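Notes, Module 5: Reading structure tokens.

Key idea: the token line is not a picture. It is a compressed description, and you learn to read it the same way you learned to read a sequence, by spotting repeated patterns. We will look at two proteins. The first is printed below with its tokens.
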Amino acid sequence: MKGKTKMIVAGITAVGTIIAAVCGGYSIAEINNSNSNSNSVVVTVNGETVDVTNSNSEDLQEIIDGLEQDKKDLTDENDKLSSEIENSVSASLKDVKLIIDGVDSGISSKSSVAVINNENYYSESFVNELIENKDFSVDFDSNKAYLGDKKVESAKLLDVCPNPVVSDDYGVQILSDTIYMSSEPYYEGFSIHSTYGKYAIFNIKGGYKNLKFLVGHIDETNMISGTLKIYLSDDSGNFTNSPVKSITINPESLPQEVSIDLNYAKQVKFEITANSGFAEWGIVNLYLD
């Protein structure tokens, strides 16, 4: 069936009457009687004719069914087009002149602002002018924008490796409650308590250059000195025999701030040994960069 319509209006009232169904100004159906003395009625629908008197009604029904299908197809197509229009993107580029605190900066940037669906998006070159040429860049691999020098962001050691390898679950504990060192509260880190060497090994995947943390004696535990040793692994994951740093922890001293050059080691190992007796120490606020 050729030709499409959205609405069909039909009616036959008398021989010789002309009836039209209209879609967008086009006549799609009419009934003609060229001879007023004849009972022959010819129906023309979009150029296809059926002699209603001399043919059966099946031909006319086939034409009507075709028109109904055309109506459905047009409705579906109209819905699809409406959806596409609704979800379409409107975009344009604008030239702008930069005014700073009411004073013309003399900077005019062409096609530097994109207006997309009524939102403004500024070009990197225009942003550089706004920030007086301080380096600005976007890394789409990490979905980060950098202003100034690119620096590796700080990360919490326990976020990078929340489940370290420990000598035993009793001697090493990830903090779940507040501890106090020199009367100050600390919330993030781990504790080691033992009369001999206990350790915790963190897999940091070779992704960091430096490590900073605080270490100190935990209040209300035995007033005994201890020694913290830090070991780093090689590229194979094996630890060196000698520590990169050895720190004496005096129970009467304030927590010490420690900085370690990791040199992108794959693992870092904390080991504490008490000089005598039993005590407990905290290693907290551990940050990688």
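Here is the second protein, with the sequence above and the tokens below, as before.
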Amino acid sequence: MKLRLVSNLLMALIFLGLTPFAHADIVAKDQAINDIRALKAHNTLQIQQLDSRIRQMLNTAPQTLLSSPLDEEQVEKLSAERRELLLRQDFLDRLILQVDSRFTTGNLREFLSERLSEMARIDLLSSNSNQQLWKQMTYLSQALRDLPERNQNTISFIEGYLKASPFKSPVKPDEYLKSRQYTNGRDAVAATPMARDEVGEKVEKRIQELEGQAPQVEIPLNR
């Protein structure tokens, strides 16, 4: 019965022009696009919140100008954050386009590493080149290429990199990879350095604690 179900499933996939592997690639592609769109939606929400704060500050400024001047420094800070988010939005749009139009089969991480490198080259040589974009794409391409964890979720890795590496001053790939020493496949946590003598003391203390907790077992004497 089970064999017949498997056979029918394979026949259905063949009829649709798909193999099980091709079906898995389609699922991976759709998941990647959905994950990037989720990042874009969150980014859009942040832009809207910044717009609201800036609008509120400018609208109330004329009413309070006599008693307290407009906080220009705060407005500039919010404006800089907004520019950063707009660059990220542009980048995410390009990423969705690349995955949707070019990714078919294979390793998503390797695909994005290659495409980001090519996107950076095209952007750098274009007449309206944006230095902030091409450098970020180049660094991210290298970070994906040198990523040691094979099971790391690619889109989650990109999300973490964008949070740590602003477009105005991108973080070099080796510096970022060093900062994320523990990962569970989706999230990464930087390790806290510890001196060797401290490690020895902690290990010895833990062993003593475990020995103190171990139950005492009486060994009967042979009679």
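Summary for the second protein:
- Helices lie at 2-15, 20-64, 72-102, 108-125, 131-146, 154-164, 173-179, 196-213.
- The chain has one domain: 7-58+76-192.
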